[in-house]
Amino acid sequence: MDVKNQIEQLRNELNQHNYNYYVLDNPIISDYEFDQKLKELQLLENQHPEFFDSNSPTVRVGGTITKNFNTITHEFRMYSLDNSYSKEDLEEWEKRIIKLSGSQNLSFTCELKYDGASVDLLYEKGKLTQATTRGDGFQGDEITANVRTIKSVPLVLQNDFPERFHIRGEIILPKKGFEEMNKERIEAGEDPYMNPRNTASGSLKLQDTSEVAKRPLDCLLYALVGSVNIKTQYEGLEKARSWGFKVPKESKLCHSTDEVMDFINYWDVHRHDLPYEIDGVVVKVNDIALQEELGYTSKSPRWAMAYKFKAEQATTTLESISYQVGRTGAITPVANLTPVLLAGTIVKRASLHNADQIEKLDIRVGDTVFVEKGGEIIPKIVGVALDKRPSGSMITTYISHCPECQSELIRNEGEAQHYCPNVEGCPPQITGRIQHYISRKAMDIEGLGGETIELLFRSKLIENYADLYELTVSKLLPLERMASKSAENIIKGIEKSKEVPFERVLFALGIRYVGETVAKKLARHYKTIDNLEKTTLEELMQVDEIGVRIAESVVQFFDNEQNKNIVKRLKSYNLQFSLSEESIANQTEKLKGFTFVVSGVFHLHSRDELKNIIEQNGGKVGSSISSKTSYVIVGDNMGPSKKQKAESLGIPMISEEDFIKMV
Ligand code: AMP
Ligand code: ZN
């Protein structure tokens, strides 16, 4: 078989597997086999750039950067929906439509109202050619490269699709994926995202497509637009599904207003069983000819109506307020409630966010409160029933001292959160740091978990993460419920962590604002911990993408006596405190003094790889073209404005191949 056919066949196969997995939820090969095939394709494509295709399954992993999102004028306006909040309103609307149509037996398509960000996809000759955000309904942003990374969006269609059409849908983050993203953020010491909807819509405007690719986004479709010969909305949904789109099966064709109401009532109760969030139901006149007759108001179609669910509320009593201390010392007030059933789960606690929130609600122990579960996963208190307030209740005064170590709390100018400043002596801060140290993305110490850390701390066996390396099986055995097998595993796991590479050790130290990516940057730049310890604020800020906030935090960390001591001890246990021989061996100074801007799509290396090579060889990576740029490495589809800029500044533009020759 010639290479071209081989590439074609792999692409078809991978598209099909992708469809099985992400649309049908029914994979027929293992993830491993899939990855192998993808790698095979990637290799062939790298060797044969002449067969490049922007809809190859390899684009799903991302790797391009979008600096500015182009504005696109919608070919067909993206309307809003009229909302109804009561069943009476909705029935009114249906009656009106029935009367207008002059027909007694109208049918409606009832769909779930997916809570995400709307998107318009354009398909030409069966291939995705453009994706646009809704924007103001007239114009939106082009986000094609980002949308191509969403696995359930078909890049190539199946069966008998129209030549050219638009399809609309909602980009969402399923609940599970959202919770996993938040778990990782919390592990990394970052604030969790508030809700799936905002996170989904924020993801669409990320500049780095590989970042988008990492997010578990999904795309649910609900409307065909343009020349697509369909008679009814319901038929449209079925057709779209047959072309390979993910169209939820919950939609229902209803032949009476009673049926519509049943659909709404059912989903009002069962929405929590869905893998994604919905905020209501959309009822649409099924007949397309009638839709056209009914037309639009200045903002929405007359043939459709959204019914918005009420955020579910429950009434309960505030029993007490407790205060949690995080790894960074931040204090979070938590409401302890009389347990109450809300949205299918028993709620006992709700976040109160901070002192301002408590003051705003004027919430007091003994109050009857309203709890709500909106888009947010954690329930929140939205109000107090003042008429039910018991007489003699006391105004809540925020704590002034840490509940764990009694230090006086501080609150920085302009910040909402109170902090416990006792970084070194406050127990939850101590255990929090050790828990971060052992976590999966940091040292990933097998056999050790968060609870064991607390047990070890309470038993006075450890006070910081360096102490882990002094543990022995015989020290562990006397602990409650500690079997000799688990003790051995813990010691083995700790021993093995001495092989964890430098960049992860750096991340594990838990320096504020030094997440995974920053740790990598610093490791690559400084190469050893000794260099990093000696650095200055000014030097740090010279490092690509290191701002003043991170720089200050790093300097402060290494200025601290206790930290100095811990790092010294870690060194004595032979942890990896310099880049590996291998990565250093690949480093040269060949590109020293040169700044490169990488622009476009490449065949031999991904953008990240190119940047890596530049940095490995002592060069600098610039983010935009300026007079300081030495070379622009040009790939396919470089934006015309960039090209103009490089030309006007007289900056040489070189190909990927030219660049590889340089090194
Ligand atoms: P609103 O933002 O409240 O005006 O509601 C309109 C939005 O609902 C549309 O822009 C869509 O993004 C979204 N939506 C979610 N599910 C559907 C659906 N099944 N049909 C139409 N629109 C939907
Ligand atoms: Zn404290």
UniProtKB/TrEMBL annotation:
**Keyword DNA repair on entry:** yes
PROSITE patterns from the UniProt entry: BRCT (PS50172), DNA_LIGASE_N2 (PS01056)
Specify the enzyme's EC class, one word.
ligase
Per the UniProt entry, what are the Gene Ontology biological process annotations, in alphabetical order? DNA repair; DNA replication
- The residues that the entry says bind Zn(2+) are 402, 405, 420, 426
Instruction: Quote any Pfam family the record assigns.
Output: DNA_ligase_aden
Give the catalytic activity: NAD(+) + (deoxyribonucleotide)n-3'-hydroxyl + 5'-phospho-(deoxyribonucleotide)m = (deoxyribonucleotide)n+m + AMP + beta-nicotinamide D-nucleotide
Q: Which coenzymes or cofactors are required?
A: Mg(2+); Mn(2+)
E.C. code: 6.5.1.2
List of catalytic residues: 113
Listed GO molecular functions? DNA binding; DNA ligase (NAD+) activity; metal ion binding
Name the InterPro entries for this protein.
BRCT_dom, BRCT_dom_sf, DisA/LigA_HHH, DNA_ligase, DNA_ligase_CS, DNAligase_adenylation, DNAligase_N, Hlx-hairpin-Hlx_DNA-bd_motif
Its job = DNA ligase that catalyzes the formation of phosphodiester linkages between 5'-phosphoryl and 3'-hydroxyl groups in double-stranded DNA using NAD as a coenzyme and as the energy source for the reaction. It is essential for DNA replication and repair of damaged DNA.
Instruction: Indicate what this protein is called per its UniProt record.
Output: DNA ligase
